[in-house]
């Protein structure tokens, strides 16, 4: 499906004709039955499911308080595991409401699941919306278990964790098939067990999934950090199977909320959301620096790593700084400049950035390393007119850069067949 097939095309730009646009960052507002409908009978009351707050036990209410979640009203739905552990509110996870209207501000944090757009949760309305917006394919990330699967630390039973991982990955394979190969859900990994991680990498590759997510800071949850040899089997298998690792902003227990510790306490909820969202995105600067300077990219030169929902404008400066400091401080074990590692095997995506500075950033980073995203249906998403917002900047940039950043780079990173879209 190319952009000329949409009603909005002529209002966007003739220069995009024939380009199959791939959106590399969207999310699934998980339906309440995404796990229970696929679980065997013995697990249906144990895998993530939704209950009303009035039915929480006193112990579960204490968990909610520790999570920093505003005390739920009795009618508020909550995600619960094993009938004893709370994952968090079962909210819409979307600023696009049931009427497919975008609502600004933090009010969406109070919406229940059924207030969200159906396109946020279900394949058929999602694909229909993609057709309307001119999007050929989307990469899809989870909400409930965290952008890096970090929320699994709230589940004490490791076997149950594994069941939840497998069911999610099976659901992503189902979604990919049901969408006709246009929705590509990223696989979860059991990051707390390296042997099971390797086994699941092999399994999701056989399922035909196109990439994985993992905890960006496992060292904060009792595991080695990602540069330790402990993780080498994971990196090796991802490299060998040509599966990209995605580091979505907020993909660890220490970066798991919209607000985090960034805003000052006296600010209003809407202002806190604005500050928290911007700083959450900037958190991936640390991830890029550590992946390169730790030697992970040196040891695994064919590994593909994506910095998701973090923009690109800051990256030219960051890489210039890393080049300078790696030389100034004689960083160990590197045979290339940090910027050269980035251009060889790392990728980033933009959405609301525009104007000449965006083109300059892309050219400085490398036209092969940048991709387009919309962040549907989250607070900073480009809905309802993602192409009208993004495309004008590229009108005079040349056909090569347009095709690469809106389509070909994503097809390369995620091993997608453009001819089949």
TrEMBL record:
<feature type="domain" description="Amidohydrolase-related">
    <location>
        <begin position="119"/>
        <end position="416"/>
    </location>
</feature>
<dbReference type="InterPro" id="IPR032465">
    <property type="entry name" value="ACMSD"/>
</dbReference>
<dbReference type="InterPro" id="IPR032466">
    <property type="entry name" value="Metal_Hydrolase"/>
</dbReference>
<protein>
    <submittedName>
        <fullName>Amidohydrolase family protein</fullName>
    </submittedName>
</protein>
<dbReference type="InterPro" id="IPR006680">
    <property type="entry name" value="Amidohydro-rel"/>
</dbReference>
<dbReference type="Pfam" id="PF04909">
    <property type="entry name" value="Amidohydro_2"/>
</dbReference>
<keyword id="KW-0456">Lyase</keyword>
